[in-house]
Amino acid sequence: MRVWLDPNRLYALSLTTDDVVRALKGQNQQVTAGQLGMPPAPNSQAFQYTLDIATRLDQVDQFEDIVVKTEQDGRMVHLRDVARIELGAQTYSQIFTLNDKPAAGIGIYQTLEANALDVAGAVKAKMDQLAKSFPPGLAYSIPFDTTTFVRASINEVWKTLFEAALLVLIVIVVFLQDWRAMLVPITTVPVTIIGAFAGMAALGFTVNLSTLLAIVLAIGIVVDDAIVVVEGAAHNIDRGMSAKEAAIQAMNELFGPIIGITLVLMAVFLPAAFIPGLTGKMFAQFALVIAATALLSAVNAATLKPTQCALWLRPPVPPAERNLLFRGFNALYDPFERAYARLISAMVTRSGAMCVVALVIIGIAGYGLSRIPTGFLPIEDTGQCRRRLRRAQRLECARQRRRSALVISAVQPRLRADIGGARSRFSAAADSRHRQCRRIRHADRAARRQLRSRQIADHHKQHRYRRADAKRIAAGDDVVPFPRAAAQG
């Protein structure tokens, strides 16, 4: 309940603000009226009544009837005589609008141990349930949802996972040119991924962006050991051995290198799990999943792959009798293979010079690494762009809204022309600043290709508003567009 005092009327009636406050406190209290006929009472009292009176005021006319002062002649001064009373907002220093319409915003933040997707789903389900009992004219929407980017990222990772497996399959078929040999490494992918999920469960990890990216990277790593075993066994079969003898001979030659490669991979990724602080927490899951996957790949290559080679491999079809696609690929690939073999032979004969060249390359790489700017996390395209207008601290809110609308209208045509419109946006204004957040439709891939949120921010930095509109905007206004951070908080 807002009470807007008229200082001139207060002065004319010899009243102060304290007088009004005392009247409000004295006549707007929660009190108990008591009972009638309660003991001790005469025996003739047959009934006992509880008095229920309205003490706390909740209507505008009730506040208007509050007596502030009684004159000597008995005339009373009511609150309506010195003030205007209305049922208004608790504070007028902040405004929330949705699509340029008045709204009320509720921010929901997850706890540290909560899952963002589960929280978003629970909120959506609860709001759908509550919406059934909303009064007419009241509706809800979720214009700002950080899990939209999370879902899109996870879907992209899943798509990349299948694409990586498909590319591995194509490479194996093209180079080995034997569908039996193809079955050996291609079965490594599901076996190792299942083992990786088992390792994640044992380590207490969840399916998130870090672990999914680690699995995508591990797909290219885990098939290497299997391909090496298959090539070794196929080479021995070409020399006249049986499939079983070829597999045994291949493992006699390759068991040591497989173990060595696995230990090197684990030595590269495991130290990242022991980095202290927030960086270590973020990269520990990534590093441990890859290390666990590499270990499972080595076990798989040393046990299952030789068995599959002994059971499935057969003498290959001669190169001259293969299909047209394979013969054409061999005709293009063989010259490069021979050139590569000559290059390696020349490098081996000049090993000392090659070591010097390698050291020089390492030095150049280290120098280049030291010159590249560092950062905690790269800025990701979350499909959201914020715009903030800063102004003097004592600027009233209504004036701030007018200036904010002027700046937004100046840059809005360019934004809509670039991305073809936006699905929803919300804004909040305070005494000293006006913020606006715009969401870009992730589902519209054409719009995303035309302009991403980072490009929108850079676009506004270069073209804050037209010169004609700039003359109408007072000095001190500052439009600051920026994309959202990759890691919130």
Describe the structure.
Helix content is 56%, strand content 10%. It has 489 residues and is an alpha+beta fold. The protein folds into 3 domains: 2-86, Multidrug efflux transporter AcrB TolC docking domain, DN and DC subdomains (2-Layer Sandwich), CATH 3.30.2090.10; 148-335, Multidrug efflux transporter AcrB transmembrane domain (Multidrug efflux transporter AcrB transmembrane fold, Up-down Bundle), CATH 1.20.1640.10; 384-483, Alpha-Beta Plaits (2-Layer Sandwich). The strands form 4 sheets. The chain has a 6-stranded antiparallel β-sheet with strand order 8-7-10-11-9-12. The chain has a two-stranded antiparallel ribbon with strand order 1-6. Strand 4 and strand 5 (76-78) form a beta hairpin. It starts with a strand and ends in a 6-residue tail after the last strand.
Notable features of this structure?
56% helix; elongated; Alpha-Beta Plaits; Multidrug efflux transporter AcrB transmembrane fold; alpha+beta; Multidrug efflux transporter AcrB TolC docking domain, DN and DC subdomains; 489 residues; two-stranded antiparallel ribbon; 16 helices
The helical percent reads: 55-70%
Ends apart, CA distance between termini: 36 Å
CATH superfamily heading of the largest domain: Multidrug efflux transporter AcrB transmembrane domain
- Radius of gyration over C-alpha positions, nearest whole angstrom: 37 Å
DSSP strand count = 12
The quaternary state of the protein chains shown equals single chain
Structural class: alpha+beta
* CATH architectural category of the largest domain: Up-down Bundle
Strand order of the largest sheet: 8-7-10-11-9-12
What is the number of helical segments per DSSP (H or I, 4+ residues)?
A: 16
Outline: elongated
The major sheet is characterized as:
6 strands, antiparallel
The first-level CATH class of the largest domain is given as: Mainly Alpha
Report the CATH topology name of the largest domain.
Answer: Multidrug efflux transporter AcrB transmembrane fold
Which residue ranges are poorly predicted, with pLDDT under 50 across at least 5 consecutive positions?
413-434, 440-451, 463-483, 485-489
In total, the number of domains comes to: 3
* Mean pLDDT, all residues: 77
Helix and strand string, N-terminal first? Answer: EHHEEHEEEEEHHHHHHHHHEHEEHHHE
Strand fraction equals 5-15%
